[in-house]
Hints:
Layout: E1 7-11, H1 15-23, E2 30-34, E3 52-55, H2 57-66, H3 69-73, E4 77-79, E5 81-85, E6 91-95, E7 103-107, H4 108-120, E8 125-128, E9 131-137, E10 142-147, E11 154-157, E12 160-163, H5 170-176, E13 180-194, E14 203-208, E15 212-218, E16 224-231, H6 235-239, H7 245-250, H8 252-257, H9 261-267, E17 271-278, E18 282-283, E19 287-289, H10 292-295, H11 304-315, E20 319-320, E21 323-324, H12 330-355, H13 361-376, H14 382-388, H15 393-406, H16 409-418
Parallel strand pairs: 1-2, 1-12, 2-8, 5-14, 12-19
Antiparallel strand pairs: 3-7, 4-7, 5-6, 9-10, 10-11, 13-16, 13-17, 14-15, 15-16, 18-19, 20-21
Helix pairs in contact: 1-4, 1-11, 2-11, 11-12, 12-15, 13-16
Amino acid sequence: MKKHEDKLLIAGGGLVGLAAAILYADRFSKVELFEKRQDPLAVQGNEARSLQLVISARGWNTLRLLGFEDEIRSLCLSLKGRWHHHKKEEKVFEAYSPIGECISCISRESIYRLLTAKARAIANIQLQFENKFHQVDFARKELFFSRGSNTEIKSSHYDFLIGADGVRSSIAAQLNQGGEDFHKEINVYREISISGVNWERDAFHYWHTKTAMIGAFPVFDGGFSLFLVHKEADFETLLQDPTAALFSGLFPEIFSSIPEAMQLFAKAKGGILGSKSCQNWHHGNNAVVVGDAAHAVLPFMGQGLNTGLEDLFFLNQYLENGKVREGMNLVDFENQRRPQAEAIRQISQDQFRYLTGKYGQEEYARRIIIASKLKLSGQLPTYSACAFSLEPFSTILEREERIKLSINKNEEDDLVGQLPQH
Length: 422
């Protein structure tokens, strides 16, 4: 431990914030983490929207540095692919990897509690829960906050500040002053827990229509976590119609297997889907935003948490002895990470359209042709490359775009004529 005093202050005690505290604890004399929610070890559950999370290669690459990868893996289920369920109780299996690799599925609460306990066990980390941020004075390097219901404003000085306070980041808002670019969808996301179904537990399951989609992740302790994505304007007809006509018509298998699903979804808190990118990620060489605070993405590639953890992997190369390494600059970190964040945002947006049934016939045909050409050239499919490699997202996207531009229109039209109507 260093003799001189220097403080890392982390705004946001979610998964990325906790991982940052643990990863960088040996670079600073003191690490202070501020979080608005209650201590997850003192209360059951948390306010997170997604009950289940996916960890893939990029996330494991960072978690490995923390030194307890095996403990986290022991809380995961391995998923080999997804089952696409059709209306007539038919289903098609789509493998995540051509060589059988699996993604890892874990409950948000279990990894949140584990990281909190690990952070608390490190002597120079101080966790400050139930604190509301008010503003940051970047010039004086001070964060202003209040605790609980107390209106008294206090401040904490920092030598280095990390904003990991999520999509509604106060730190990012001050860094950008209106320069945050939100991409809001008109879709609402709701999640429930269910049991008593016999779906395969080594895969993700999904049902989609033109207006709504349901996905199901198996839960480590049993049962499934179901999420519903629906158009914001359809709430009354989809979830409050006493006849359940629309819901049962769109999802007959769900309706017959889980009769209470519609009512449970109606009671679940809904969140608007969207993505975000910030113009400014840092202030000077002593403040930076990471994860969703800088670049939230739609959750349909399972890369939101993984991209945030990958931010920490690269930021790790910049920090030493309470500050940015001599000769290095946070401008370079931002320039390094921004293209990757933008690329996975675009890839996730496309995957959202695919999984929620918004593709037209030509788009389905192009997806099949791109996958075929990637396979013929010995390259990984787009999903596999994102999930199981450390290849830059920008390179993966550029490769797909090149193939898309090379597709012969006659080839596309011929395939469209052979496809079933979606």
